[in-house]
Design goal:
630 residues; 19 helices; alpha/beta; 8-stranded antiparallel sheet; 25 strands
């Protein structure tokens, strides 16, 4: 969840490091820092750093004020796990050797880290016994001292020895005062990429950090250690008996920096909400008919394809976290109702820690915006270890670990999503999951040609339908003015729209800090009704489907107790506004695809409520994008 950037060059790389951090700040923004090799800086011994608990823009001002310059350096933006957001806990971390600063030594090793070290307490105690002094509460400081303890003139050897002692997840970049123009990186469980430039080399946790600097990207694999020197690099893969040199091909990655430009919008979240019609259109581009081969991925075995896999499976297991989990919950209704395939949806962070009953005829579907979500990757590997080898991912990043590790894939085309609260990634996931439903239904003989064409016609109309929903924004703002004064809210939905109520509640709590919960509306009388007063707004997703009359009864239960209802109703649902019942009418009823439309007003409600409450919409407290730690 943290952002890492490093560079070895002949030019001053501080502006490049700052620019990379700015592009990665959405991954963590509790603190940030830069360390460079500055041989001419008096009293530094060659290493100089600047750290801040403010945003990257403040760090940029600091390095300019301090005239920080260097040709080799590392930088980091942090999402705190061990230790509060404070300067002494901010990366990069230094090691001064045994005795620390008190011995008057200059720093020798600098390091940045993404991940969590599970055995850091034991390592810390061992290092303290050797005389190492700790100045932070982080698990990361253990790694930098460990590297220093193994250092004997060869940084690569020291890093390999140190990482062999680590249990947990890490992506690290480290350099040493005694070896100018050299950085060593390593990864296990957290993403790290190598950038190859003209006479210079780079490290980053995401290729986006290097947009405009180089488009030649090498994706490091699990256990890789990379040695960056001026204009060249060397990669070693971890093997059971040590390490061996390997070739990892560079890929041309066009990570356009323009993707992170805010443009005329107030926040990235607002921009991304309004980009949804285009994102859906791009995701569906080229879908002329629902053929299973749409899901053929980079790892399909010779002689096999998606059609072969789909015919062979008899149930689906969906693994995901957060918003992606809710998209999977919605897909369960489609997969069972349209394709007739039993479907189980699991929270990825829980799945691998319980005893489950594996079925080799299961299609394991992972869903992730980044494709690097640590819990989902771990759940995927656990499912594979149980013998479930038919795997498919719905993902927004074609070069991600999730795509590389699954046999089949459908890459959504939502584009770069900066706002921590996911919006366009969610709706494109729903679109992809609906396509998967149709492809499986087709493979199982449960979809007639006429039904297929009806579904495809509805999908092609989605961008226009979403534009009509976005036009409801002024009415949603009026609701937001009420919500901004509240501290609690309930969201209700039934059937296919219960996951949409869950997603609406999540959005509101994420960015406005209003406590919000979602329930199946039929469960209201089994406990949550006790919370209903005129100070508890109740949002109800009310499409004109087979459950509408039941939902109306649930709404009356709220209204009779003095609760205030905010209803998203289809035009023909015959729900009228009155005192205590506020109604926004959706432009049209959209059948099975209705969730993609009903979620948009809930996104807008959360966004405008947060704006009125003055919160940091794009960077909500305690959260970060791309959850790459467990």
């Amino acid at each position: 969840m943290c952002g890492i950037v490093g560079a070895v060059s002949t030019r001053n790389i501080v502006p490049l490091l700052v620019q990379g951090l700015q592009r990665l700040e959405y991954r963590g923004y509790d603190s940030c820092g830069i360390a460079i090799h500055a041989a001419g800086a008096p009293g530094t011994g060659g290493l100089q750093r600047t750290r801040s608990t403010s945003r990257v823009s403040e760090l940029e001002a600091q390095v300019q004020q301090e005239s920080v310059q260097g040709t080799t350096g590392i930088a980091h933006t942090r999402w705190a796990t061990h230790g509060a957001p404070a300067v002494h806990n901010a990366h990069p971390h230094f090691s001064f050797g045994p005795g620390g600063k008190a011995e008057g030594r200059p720093p020798r090793v600098a390091l940045v880290h993404n991940g969590i070290i599970e055995n850091y307490i034991e390592l810390r105690q061992s290092l303290q016994a050797k005389g190492y002094v700790f100045s932070s509460q982080t698990d990361t400081e253990v790694i930098v001292h460990l590297v220093d303890s193994h250092y004997d003139g060869d940084l690569l050897a020291a890093v390999k020895q140190a990482t062999a002692e680590l249990h947990g997840a890490y992506a690290i970049a480290v350099f040493c005062r005694d070896e100018p123009q050299r950085i060593v990186g390593a990864r296990a469980g957290s993403p790290l990429v190598l950038g190859v430039g003209q006479g210079e080399t780079f490290l980053a946790s995401d290729a986006m950090a290097l947009a405009g600097v180089t488009d030649q990207i090498v994706y490091l694999e699990e256990g890789d250690v990379v040695d960056l020197q001026l204009g060249r690099h060397w990669i070693e893969a971890r093997t059971p008996d040590g390490h061996k040199p390997v070739e990892r091909p560079a890929k041309t990655v066009l990570a356009h920096s323009g993707a992170v430009e805010l443009g005329p919008y107030r926040h990235y979240m607002q921009k991304e909400i309004f980009e949804q019609p285009r994102a859906i259109a791009d995701t569906l581009e080229g879908v002329a008919g629902v053929v299973p081969e749409l899901f053929d991925g980079p790892n399909v075995q010779p002689g096999l394809n998606a059609h072969h896999t789909f015919k062979a499976v008899d149930n689906v297991l969906i693994l995901a976290c957060g918003t992606s989990y809710y998209s999977g919950c919605a897909a369960k209704y489609w997969l069972e109702g349209i394709a007739g395939i039993p479907t189980q949806v699991e929270v990825a962070s829980e799945y691998r820690y319980r005893t489950s009953v594996p079925n080799p005829r299961t299609l394991v579907v992972t869903i992730s915006q980044s494709g690097e979500t640590a819990d989902t990757l771990a759940a995927l590997r656990h499912a594979q270890s149980l013998g479930m080898e038919q795997t498919l991912t719905i993902c927004n990043v074609a070069t991600s670990a999730m795509v590389r590790e699954c046999r089949l894939a459908y890459v959504t085309r939502a584009g770069m999503e900066i706002g921590v609260a996911s919006t366009k990634a969610f709706t494109t996931q729903l679109a992809a999951l609906f396509l998967l439903t149709l492809a499986l239904a087709q493979s199982k003989g449960r979809l007639t040609e006429q039904q297929e064409q009806q579904h495809l016609t509805a999908m092609r109309h989605l961008p226009a339908a979403l534009q009509a929903v976005l036009a409801l924004e002024p009415q949603v703002i009026a609701w937001a003015e009420d919500f901004a004064r509240k501290e609690n809210a309930l969201f209700l939905g039934r059937g296919l729209h219960y996951p949409i109520a869950l997603e609406g509640a999540l959005k509101l709590k994420e960015i406005s800090y209003i406590h919000a919960e979602a329930y199946p509306a039929g469960e209201l009388k089994h406990g949550p009704l006790a919370l209903v007063t005129n100070e508890m707004p109740v949002v109800t997703v009310a499409p004109n489907d087979q459950l509408l009359e039941k939902l109306k009864s649930n709404m009356q239960e709220v209204h009779a107790r003095g609760g205030v209802l905010y209803v998203l109703a289809d035009a023909d649902s015959r729900i009228e506004g009155e005192d205590g019942i506020h109604v926004i009418r959706m432009p049209e009823h959209y059948g099975a695809l209705s969730p993609l439309l009903h979620v948009v007003p809930l996104q807008l409600l959360a966004y405008h409520t947060a704006c009125l409450r003055g919160t940091d919409v794009d960077k909500p407290r305690n959260l970060a994008k791309s959850v790459t730690v467990e």
